[in-house]
C-alpha cells in the first residue's frame, strides 16, 4: 500500500517596512507596561524619525522635493498636510498646510503626491497624513487605499469629532489626535507668549487623563502633541492606554534627545538631519 505524506503549505512571510517594525516594537512595549511590566531602557526602540512636511528646512515643505529631501535624510515617516479646495471640505484635495501655502506655489494634488510616495524609493517609509479641516477624511482614506498606502499611513487631525466619524466608517485606518489646535506657534511672539505658555501649562495638567480616555475608548490610536505639552505623565498615560505618542515640531537637538529618553514613539522635525547629532540615534 502506498502512503502519501501530507504537504503543508506555509504562508508566505509578510514583508514589513522598518517603520512598521518600529511601530510594532512600540506597541509591544505598551502592552508590557499595561500588564505591569517595564521594558529596560536598552530594549526600547528609538523614536521614529519623522519629517515635517517632508523636510521643510531643506526644501519647500509639502512638495515632492521636500519628500525626496526627507528620504535622503533618513526619515522613517513623512508627515504631509492635506487641504481641500474649499473650506467646507469640498473640491479637489491638495498637499498644503493652509490656503496661503496652497496659493503661493504650483498646487500639488493629493493624488499626484500619493502616486509619487507609492513609488519604490519610499517603499520602507510610513506616513502621517494630517487633515487640516474636517469634512473630507473619508475621501482621503479612499485615496490612500487606491494608492496602496493605507496600511502604512496614520491619519491625524486636530478635530476629534472628525476622527471619531472616520473610525466609525473606516475602522481599519490608524488615527492620531493632534493637540493643541493652533494656527501658529504663539509662544514665539512676545505679545502672545505669556498666555500661550499658561495655556500649555494647563494643558500639561489635564491632557494625560483626557488622552488616555480617548485612546481607551477606541477613538484614536495615537496622540500627536506639541512638544511643550509632553510630560512623563502624558507619556505614561498614552503607553498605559496602548497608544502611540508623537511630538511635534522639534527643531532643537537637545529637545529631541530629552524626548527620546522620555519614551515618545516618534519625533516630528523640519530638519531630519538633526537626528544625526543626537546621542540616542548614534
Beta-strand residue fraction: 15-25%
The strands making up the biggest β-sheet line up spatially as 1-2-4-5-6-7-8-9
Class derived from helix and strand content: alpha/beta
- Count of helices? 9
Quote the average pLDDT.
88
Largest sheet: 8 strands, parallel, barrel
| Approximate shape | globular
Compute the separation of the termini in Å.
Answer: 65 Å
CATH class: Alpha Beta
SSE diagram, text form:
Elements: H1 18-34, E1 48-52, H2 64-72, E2 77-84, E3 93-95, H3 99-103, H4 110-117, E4 126-131, H5 137-147, E5 153-157, H6 160-169, E6 174-179, H7 193-216, E7 222-226, H8 232-240, E8 244-248, H9 253-262, E9 266-269
Parallel strand pairs: 1-2, 1-9, 2-4, 4-5, 5-6, 6-7, 7-8, 8-9
Antiparallel strand pairs: 2-3
Helix pairs in contact: 4-5, 7-8
Detailed description of the structure:
- The chain has 282 residues and is of the alpha/beta class.
- It has one domain (26-31, 44-281): Alpha-Beta Barrel (TIM Barrel), CATH 3.20.20.190.
- It contains nine helices and nine strands.
- It has helices spanning 18-34, 64-72, 99-103, 110-117, 137-147, 160-169, 193-216, 232-240, 253-262, and strands at 48-52, 77-84, 93-95, 126-131, 153-157, 174-179, 222-226, 244-248, 266-269.
- An eight-stranded parallel beta barrel has the order 1-2-4-5-6-7-8-9, surrounded by six helices.
- Helix 7 (193-216) runs parallel beside helix 8 (232-240).
- It is globular and about 40 Å long.
- The protein starts with 17 loop residues before the first helix and ends in a 13-residue tail after the last strand.
- The model is unreliable at 1-15 (pLDDT under 50).
Amino acid at each position: 500500500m502506498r502512503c502519501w505524506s501530507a504537504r503543508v503549505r506555509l504562508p508566505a512571510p509578510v514583508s514589513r517596512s522598518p517603520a512598521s517594525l518600529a511601530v510594532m516594537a512600540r506597541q509591544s512595549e505598551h502592552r508590557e507596561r499595561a500588564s505591569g511590566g517595564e521594558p529596560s531602557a536598552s530594549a526600547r526602540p528609538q523614536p521614529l524619525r519623522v519629517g515635517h512636511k517632508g523636510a521643510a528646512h531643506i526644501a519647500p515643505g509639502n512638495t515632492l522635493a521636500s519628500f525626496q529631501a526627507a528620504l535622503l535624510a533618513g526619515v522613517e515617516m513623512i508627515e504631509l498636510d492635506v487641504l481641500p479646495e474649499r473650506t467646507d471640505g469640498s473640491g479637489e484635495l491638495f498637499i498644503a498646510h493652509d490656503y496661503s501655502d496652497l496659493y503661493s506655489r504650483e498646487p500639488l494634488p493629493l493624488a499626484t503626491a500619493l502616486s509619487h510616495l507609492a513609488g519604490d524609493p519610499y517603499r520602507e517609509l510610513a506616513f502621517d497624513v494630517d487633515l487640516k479641516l474636517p469634512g473630507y477624511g473619508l475621501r482621503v482614506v479612499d485615496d490612500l487605499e487606491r494608492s496602496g498606502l493605507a496600511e502604512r499611513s496614520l491619519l491625524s487631525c486636530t478635530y476629534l469629532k472628525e476622527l471619531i466619524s472616520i473610525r466609525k466608517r473606516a475602522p481599519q485606518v490608524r488615527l492620531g489626535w493632534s493637540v493643541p489646535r493652533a494656527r501658529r506657534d504663539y509662544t514665539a511672539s512676545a505679545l502672545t507668549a505669556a498666555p500661550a505658555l499658561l495655556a500649555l501649562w494647563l494643558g500639561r495638567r489635564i491632557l494625560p487623563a483626557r488622552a488616555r480616555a480617548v485612546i481607551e475608548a477606541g477613538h484614536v490610536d495615537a496622540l500627536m502633541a506639541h512638544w511643550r505639552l509632553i510630560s512623563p505623565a502624558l507619556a505614561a498615560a498614552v503607553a498605559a492606554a496602548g497608544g502611540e505618542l508623537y511630538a511635534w515640531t522639534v527643531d532643537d537637538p537637545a529637545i529631541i534627545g530629552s524626548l527620546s529618553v522620555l519614551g515618545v514613539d516618534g519625533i516630528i522635525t523640519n530638519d531630519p538631519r538633526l537626528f544625526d547629532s543626537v546621542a540616542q540615534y548614534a
